[in-house]
Design a protein that fits this description.
Length: 211
């Protein structure tokens, strides 16, 4: 049975070969930025597939209906806008900006994967409890915050507004509604009101009240 994670994982793993093919097809072999992009986004695709295999999100185990398949393919293909405009546009990325993108990517990978691993362990060892420790102590969605850093790095490296616009649509149409639905679901826990008071929905509430 085709599941949503099969579609997502396939797109993630295909990113590296796609970018490599674009580099050679459009004569970008001698440019630094496309290779940096390949190293970052290609690695992320492999890491995502490993995460999906080892401690994946159960919500992606749903059967993939034709409608959801179309939505997933459309949304995932939009993530390839960054390497396409970077390679076809021929823009040269200033070294300081490239360094910033690499640092942002590293921070994002840490937040995204550590948060997902922490959630996976909590659900396995403490099912039915509200996760409020570690990366989840100041933001209710550290995994989304990590992905935000990762894709912001990719968009910035592209030196083009299109990836930012497409990523903004994903946040508005997919991420934000998901975060609101999750808050509504977690509100069944008696401790959630206090937890929500001292955390941010996405960005950490660094100076908020402590428990």
């Amino acid at each position: 049975m085709l599941r949503e994670r099969h579609v997502i994982d396939t797109f993630k793993l295909a990113t590296g070969p796609l970018v490599l093919g674009l580099i050679f097809a459009f004569g970008a072999v001698d440019r630094h930025a496309p290779w940096i992009y390949l190293g970052l986004h290609g690695t992320y695709g492999v890491l995502w597939a490993l995460k999906s295999r080892l401690f994946g999100d159960k919500s992606w185990e749903r059967p993939c209906t034709p409608f959801r398949f179309g939505l997933l393919v459309t949304g995932l293909a939009g993530y390839w806008a960054a390497p396409i405009v970077l390679i076809l546009g021929g823009a040269e990325v200033p070294p300081p900006l490239a360094a910033l993108c690499i640092a942002l990517f590293g921070l994002g990978v840490f937040l995204h994967f550590v948060a997902d691993m922490q959630k996976h362990a909590s659900m396995a060892w403490r099912p039915g409890t509200l996760l409020t420790e570690g990366l989840w102590s100041r933001t209710r969605n550290p995994n989304y915050l990590g992905e935000l850093c990762i894709y912001a790095a990719f968009a910035t490296l592209s030196m083009h507004p299109l990836p930012f616009a497409l990523f903004g649509l994903v946040i508005a149409l997919e991420w934000w509604p998901n975060m609101r639905r999750k808050d509504a679901s977690l509100s069944r826990y008696p401790a959630f009101a206090d937890y929500a008071r001292r955390t941010g929905r996405l960005f950490p509430r660094v100076f908020g009240p402590r428990s």
